[in-house]
Design brief:
The structure is a single chain. The chain has one domain. Helices cover 78% and strands 0% of the residues. It has 13 helices and no strands. The longest helix has 27 residues. InterPro entries: EmrE-like. Keywords: Membrane, Transmembrane, Transmembrane helix. This is EamA-like transporter family protein.
Length: 286
């Protein structure tokens, strides 16, 4: 149960970190790069440090790690912008409801049966996302950023599908630490490439608030992936139960934080969307 609890808290912590990065006016891209350096170091310290690069290259998950690592930084950047512009509650819900896509992936790739229960769950899940991001006409500021949580829904769902595939195929007997290390390292390298393309000053990476923000973000980011895989492997629950507990927990904690700490306002339609999201998660994972 501790793995599940840590997975929920660390994942919710990501959204909280992004809100504080906005508060202290920290450049998102710079913080994300420091975050991935921190996360890769954490993975390296927890892994078998005697493993060589040659051994890593010959791991069966080496190729897919490049795809996931590159997608990581794209998804993380969208999370950051959406959290700051569209709000923590809506961004969290869009991110976590994206697990509908991995379930579709499982049906197609693993040829799982399609039941009436799953169809109802999919319809409720998509409705929940649409309702949760609805804004009144008077809230023009947030309305123009609604494309961010929508985009996040699809990007995060694709990333989760790839992570689920890697866990099922390659990581059931361990090795998630070095796998996570490589993913985060690739994401960090991708971030540096973006900096070079943007011709941004590398000295900005060493500003105190960038280092502190990126460090904290990296710790919770590493924890979110590490404890998710650990929960799938060691909790003793079926994966559907694990995803159910974690996703409901993250949505609940993040919404409470958004309302209680950041004073975010949800209209009645948004609240209906959150209720439908929880119902959809129960239907799809039980």
């Amino acid at each position: 149960m501790l793995y599940l609890l840590f997975a929920i808290l660390s994942s919710a912590g990501i959204f909280v970190c992004f809100k504080y990065l906005e508060k202290y006016k920290v450049d998102i891209l710079l913080a994300i790069i420091i975050n991935y350096i921190t996360a890769s170091v954490c993975g390296f310290l927890l892994s078998d440090s005697n493993i060589t690069f040659t051994q890593i290259v010959h791991q069966p998950w080496f190729n897919i790690s490049f795809i996931i690592g590159t997608a990581f930084i794209a998804a993380f950047f969208i999370i950051g912008r959406s959290t700051q512009k569209a709000g923590i509650s809506i961004t969290t819900l869009a991110s976590k409801m994206s697990f509908v896509l991995p379930m579709i992936f499982s049906i197609v790739f693993y040829q799982e049966a399609i039941s009436t229960q799953k169809i109802i769950g999919f319809v409720l899940a998509i409705s929940a996302v649409l309702l949760s991001i609805y804004k009144d006409q008077t809230d023009a500021t947030q309305r123009k950023y609604l494309w961010l949580p929508i985009l996040l829904f699809f990007v995060a769902g694709t990333v989760d599908s790839l992570v689920k595939y890697a866990q099922e195929e390659y990581l059931t007997s361990g090795g998630q630490e070095i796998f996570s290390t490589l993913l985060f390292a690739i994401a960090a390298i991708s971030g540096f490439v973006v900096l070079i393309i943007k011709k941004q000053n590398f000295k900005e990476l060493f500003r105190a608030k960038v280092l502190i923000g990126g460090l904290l973000l990296g710790l919770v980011n590493f924890g979110s992936l590490h404890f998710l895989i650990a929960s799938l492997n060691k909790s003793g629950f079926d994966s559907s139960v694990v995803f159910s507990i974690i996703n409901i927990g993250i949505v609940a904690v993040s919404v409470l934080i958004g309302i209680g700490i950041f004073r975010e306002k949800l209209n009645k339609i948004n609240l209906l969307g959150i209720v439908l999201a929880i119902i959809a998660i129960f239907i799809l994972t039980n």
